[in-house]
Write a structure and sequence with these properties.
- The complex is a heterotrimer of chains A (554), B (325) and C (226).
- With 554 residues, chain A is mostly helical.
- Chain A has one domain: Cytochrome C Oxidase, Chain A (Up-down Bundle), CATH 1.20.210.
- Chain A contains 16 helices and no strands.
- The N terminus and C terminus of chain A are likely disordered.
- Chain B has 325 residues and is α+β, with helices and mostly antiparallel strands.
- Among the domains of chain B are: 108 residues, Immunoglobulin-like (Sandwich), CATH 2.60.40; 98 residues, Cytochrome Bc1 Complex, Chain D, domain 2 (Orthogonal Bundle).
- Chain B is 38% helix and 20% strand.
- Chain C is an all-alpha fold.
- Classes of the chains: A mainly alpha (554), B alpha+beta (325), C mainly alpha (226).
Chain lengths: 554, 325, 226
């Protein structure tokens, strides 16, 4: 039973003036300093990039229904998977939740009027689309075939594709990340409303804080790495060429020093969203607040010292392998703690099943599987067999798609009424969530099996005995694709035809729900003074009311 | 009508769940994999079930109901932090032990050389036969693969043996295995290396010792790697300076393999495959004190196959003396 | 902080996302420190690669380092340290309410020293390297005694000093903006945060050079027989 919309007689009215209609015209959007509008600019750009990356994935899966490849020559397939990885990692997942929901919500959740540096915020967006445009140009004019990992000597000396253009696009977009992270860190440190102490902050803020630490400390290293690779390609000076004294493994160390923390950039904000969704839809304080908060921080810290687990089979020393393996096991623990805390939050809650909650529950399940399969890879002896196979592909897609993308969709659906002032049709939203969940599992579970059987990744053609599992995977991908298209339709529809939402359709706690939907440009008429802890949902002590009616069951 | 066991059998026939287990370590790796799968299944089912039960039991019945509060006892948090940590510790130790053990080839291993290049595998047996994209080995004999790449990074992967190692230009990596079942097994390249990465595949043929001996003896008569190397050593003029008796312009190479040498720049390095290759390609970087740096470079003149033959020859020098031949 | 106090007297430059001037000042400072942390990681990646190759090819790095002219490197080090002094003096002048003319003088002095640094680099070092064929990928007369390691050293020399020089150029741009702002009376003893923050950036660029100089110019010593 949906309780989202109040009785028609109490139908809320949309505020006359809000951030969406405060000024009109394309210039007012392209030159805005309002964090909410900038969040929407990002939403539009990354949706475009998601579609590009998604089309590449669809074509890949269609190609792979036949062992000899159904659609492309190997060279084209190689460009497809490279494009898919580059676009999805750098231009969709990394910015997704932080740049859209983070930009929109951080000032609202902490009680501020905007981020610390609004002009820098707009500049971040322009830097992002410049990088994205350059990467798209590289893709359209022939693409790259190096994989998103750009390993030399192949990418520096052998590949005849537009490596420099695409690498430059990523390099530029990296500065967008750095500046966004910087903005968020200063905002959270310095602009909290009076009374909003660190331990009263919503967990979404803790998650974005931890993410921003990785943004500012990790991204510069990929920047310099791609810079060196670009110079190597242009000048042929041998930085990574063994024939003249260089070391291709140095590239891998530098690359993964960023790219491993980067995967935590992609998942931590999602975890923050889940904390918000689970509390809102159980109407209950989170179980273990400080444990969840500190686990976000510890994930961010430990993420910087595990990169070597991507290199267990490169011939690095056994000791290095042992160290990275034990640290990789260690980084799994805080994530497990979060899963347990979210589950425990449901206990004695008052749970409803609107679409955001379905996405949240789906996340918890799929992230559990994805995270546990990470243990197979932290474990040295099994990683030797599984590295470079579809097991890896399945592992990270369970986390990135089953995890991060579902959290992103859950967050979009949860805060959509705040962003747009309208509600979307919940039935369609739930149907899409179910389609996505089913399509996702059908796509990626067979890939675990393919990996264990030995099918390597990045293969344009494969031995016939792997066909059945590949066909299952491709069937799932087509279902998954449909699941992604439906929300775009009804969310767009809702902006014009959806019922007015009112300030707090979910009856959730949080400063963002105390202001109108959509919010006014300056967010708060008066900066609030915070006196209660986060998620301060009403609750009764069981021992006070043993028999009273209306009490939730024991 | 098909009953469940038959259906399962049919499914297993269509979709096998694991690759053939054909090496001395396959069983160990599979056991660990099974444990990991069990842990994954256990926690997945646990979480899914608990969520499902809570979803039903605590579903919202009235919009204005007030839930009962719960508190966060520290003991609960500690328990579900410590138990996963213990599980991880066990997994780490088990896996690390297996990994370290699998990393040490037995002393009696037969050494086979592997060169990866875009987009094929060259394999050279010490007795001489060379193969492309195929590897014939006897069952029950430990085999050590010493591998290098001629161009980009590749990866030598035999799923049935559960072994895999990157193959890099400019250096040598190694793997070892002991096949336990005769048969034919996939060989894949598992590190993306360009256009035909997915066609850089082949077969490993594990044969009985008799069949293997026949295979070795049959086919074209070819010289051993060291013999081929000896020919190159003379052909490229190496023997004019590297006189065996040691009175030439360059040091004698008899017995140098495996010994430490002090270089002109002060470093001490053990003479291994990498050093020999470096000496041939960039001689001035490793020349010895008391010798003039006049050795010419052979960069661009010697391909990777020839390089392995020369290395095999140098390795054999002195061992003949030691073996009294 | 009452509404009244907030709206009464806002100095120029106050940004309305903040509630107080103090908050803005602290935010600006924190932002610059975080930015410098990112710069440390940025240069750090390059330094890491340098350290790895130096340990792999030490003799070649020594040879390569001996190709560099210590007298110009040392002069430039002195020039940069002086420029940090003049920058600090500009900030001090603003802090103590000195005249805008004095502030501009010190800012211009910083710019002159910065430009001198770049000029010395370009004319007496890089131009000479170009003529002598020591720029890998651009004009390289290597081969012979210039082993691969020497080429690697020269790569890192140019990449690292080039990246540093790029940061200097950006710094000169920032200083230009500061001069204009000072000329337009934007600063006072109550509000000179842009000067302070830019000063942090300038000092950071100076410190990077202080690491680069010994690492690049002084490998293996300069004494006979070494």
């Amino acid at each position: 039973m949906s309780t989202a919309i109040a009785d028609i007689h109490d139908a809320p009215a949309e505020p006359a003036v809000n951030y969406l209609n405060a000024s009109y015209g394309i210039r007012s959007w392209l030159l805005t300093f309002d964090h909410k509008r900038i969040g929407l600019l990002y939403l539009a750009s990354i949706t475009v990039m998601f579609v590009v990356g998604g089309v590449a994935a669809t074509l890949m899966r269609l190609h792979l229904v036949e062992p000899q490849g159904a659609l492309f020559e190997p060279e084209t397939y190689n460009k497809m998977f490279s494009t898919h990885g580059i676009i999805m990692v750098f231009f969709f997942l990394v910015p997704s939740i932080p740049a859209t929901l983070g930009n929109f919500l951080i000032p609202l959740m902490i009680g501020a009027r905007d981020v610390a540096f609004p002009k820098l915020n707009l500049m971040s967006w322009y830097i992002f689309i410049t990088g994205a445009a350059l990467a798209l140009y590289g893709t359209i004019s022939g693409g790259v075939d190096t994989g998103w990992t750009f390993y030399p000597p192949f990418s520096s000396l052998y590949s005849g594709t537009h490596v420099v253009a695409v690498a430059l696009g990523i390099f530029i977009a990296g500065f967008s990340s750095i500046l966004t992270g910087l903005n968020f860190l200063v905002t959270i440190h310095k602009m909290r409303a009076p009374g909003m102490t660190w331990f009263r902050l919503p967990l979404f803020i803790w998650a974005l804080y931890a993410t921003s630490l990785i943004f500012v400390l990790g991204t510069p290293v990929i920047a310099i790495t791609l810079f060196l690779l670009g110079l190597e390609r242009l000048l042929h000076v041998g930085i990574f060429d063994p024939a003249v004294g260089g070391d291709p493994l140095l590239f891998q160390h530098l690359f993964w020093f960023y790219s491993h923390p980067a995967v935590y950039i992609m998942i931590l904000p999602g975890m923050g969203v889940i904390s918000e969704l689970v509390t809102a839809f159980s109407r209950k304080k989170i179980f273990g607040y400080s444990f969840v908060a500190f686990s976000s921080l510890s994930i961010a810290v430990i993420s910087f010292i595990v990169w070597g687990h991507h290199m267990f089979v490169t011939g690095q020393s056994v000791y290095a392998g042992l160290v990275f393996s034990v640290l990789s096991f260690l980084v799994a623990i805080p994530s497990a703690v979060k899963v347990f805390n979210w589950t425990a939050t449901l206990y004695r809650g008052s749970i409803s099943y609107e679409a955001p909650m379905l996405y949240a529950l789906g996340f918890i399940g799929l992230f559990t599987i994805g995270g546990l399969t990470g243990l197979f890879l932290a474990s040295l002896a099994t990683d030797v067999h599984l590295n470079g196979t579809y097991f890896i592909v399945a592992h990270f897609h369970y986390i990135m798609v089953g995890g991060a993308v579902m959290a992103y969709l859950g967050g979009i659906h949860f805060w959509w009424p705040k962003i747009s002032g309208r509600m979307y049709p919940d039935m369609w939203a739930r149907i899409s969530a179910a389609i996505i969940f089913l399509g996702f599992n059908l796509t990626f579970f067979p890939q675990f099996m393919l990996g264990y059987l030995g099918m390597p990744r990045r293969y344009a053609v494969y031995p016939a005995e792997f066909q059945v599992l590949n066909v299952l995977s491709s069937a799932g991908a087509s279902i998954l694709g449909i699941g992604y298209v439906i929300p775009i339709i009804y969310l767009a529809w809702s902006m014009r035809y959806g019922p007015v939402a009112g300030p707090n359709p979910w009856k959730a706690k949080g400063l963002e729900w105390t202001i109108p939907s959509p919010p006014p440009t300056e967010n708060f008429e008066e900066i609030p003074i915070v006196t209660e802890e986060a998620y301060n949902y009403p609750a009764i002590e069981a021992h006070d009311y043993p028999d009273a009616p209306g009490v939730a069951r024991v | 009508m098909i009953d469940l066991p038959t259906a399962f059998q049919l499914l297993a026939a269509t979709v096998p769940f694991q690759p053939p287990a054909a090496s001395s370590i396959s069983g160990d790796v599979d056991r660990l994999y099974l444990l990991l799968s069990g842990i994954t299944a256990f926690f997945t089912v646990l979480i899914f079930s608990i969520i499902f039960v809570f979803m039903v039991k605590f579903r919202r019945r009235k919009d204005d109901e007030t839930p009962v509060s719960t508190h966060t006892p520290l003991i609960v948090e500690l328990t579900w932090t410590i138990i996963p940590s213990l599980i991880c510790a066990v997994l780490f130790v088990w896996s690390a032990a297996l990994y370290v053990q699998n990393g040490r080839p037995p002393a009696s291993s037969t050494e086979i050389f592997v060169i990866g290049k875009q987009w094929m595998w060259h394999l050279q047996h010490p007795e001489g036969p060379r193969e492309i994209n195929e590897l014939h080995v006897p069952v029950g004999v430990p085999i050590k693969l010493t591998m290098t790449s001629q161009d980009v990074i590749h990866d030598f992967y035999v799923p049935a043996f559960r072994i895999k190692k990157d193959v890099l230009p400019g250096r040598f990596t190694s793997l070892w295995f002991q096949a336990t079942e005769t048969g034919t097994y996939h060989l894949f390249c598992a590190q993306y290396c360009g256009t035909n990465h997915s066609e850089m595949i082949g077969w490993v043929y594990v044969m009985t010792p008799t069949d293997y001996a026949n295979w070795l003896a049959g086919g074209e008569k070819s010289e051993s790697l060291a013999q081929l190397g000896e020919r190159l050593f003379s052909q490229y003029g190496c023997d004019s300076c590297h006189v065996a008796e040691g009175n030439g312009q360059a040091p004698s190479l008899v017995g140098v393999y495996g010994k430490p040498e002090r270089l002109q720049n002060g470093e001490t390095r053990v003479v291994d495959e990498s050093l020999i290759e470096q000496a041939i390609l960039t001689p001035n970087s490793v020349h010895l004190p008391n010798y003039k740096p006049v050795m010419p470079t052979y960069q661009g003149q010697i391909d990777q196959d020839q390089m392995l033959q020369l290395i095999a020859y140098v390795k054999s020098l002195g061992s003949e003396e030691r073996n009294g031949r | 902080m009452s509404e009244l106090a907030v709206h009464s007297a806002h100095p120029p430059g106050f940004a309305h996302q903040f509630e107080t001037v103090e908050q803005q000042r602290e935010a600006g400072h924190l932002g610059m420190w975080i930015f410098l942390a990112t710069e440390i990681l940025f240069f750090g990646g390059m330094f890491t690669a340098y350290v790895v190759y130096r340990s792999l090819h030490l003799p070649s790095f020594i040879l390569g380092s001996h190709e560099l002219l210590v007298r110009f490197g040392a002069t430039n080090t002195a020039v940069l340290i002086c420029s940090s002094l003049t920058m600090a003096l500009a900030i001090r002048t603003a802090q103590t309410g000195g005249s805008k003319g004095t502030i501009i003088f010190w800012l211009l002095a910083t710019m002159v020293l910065g430009a001198a640094f770049l000029g010395i680099k370009l004319r007496y070092e890089w131009y000479r390297d170009w003529v002598e064929g020591l720029i890998p990928g651009v004009s390289w007369l290597g081969g012979g005694t210039h082993t691969p390691g020497v080429k690697m050293f020269m790569c890192f020399y140019f990449f690292m000093t080039g990246l540093h020089a790029l940061h200097m150029v950006v710094g000169l741009g920032i200083l230009t903006v500061l001069v204009i702002m000072t000329a337009r009376n934007r600063f006072s003893p109550e509000y000179y945060a842009p000067l302070e923050i830019s000063g942090l950036y300038w000092h950071f660029v100076d410190i990077v050079w202080i690491f680069l100089f010994p690492l690049l110019y002084l490998i293996g010593g300069r004494y006979p027989g070494s």
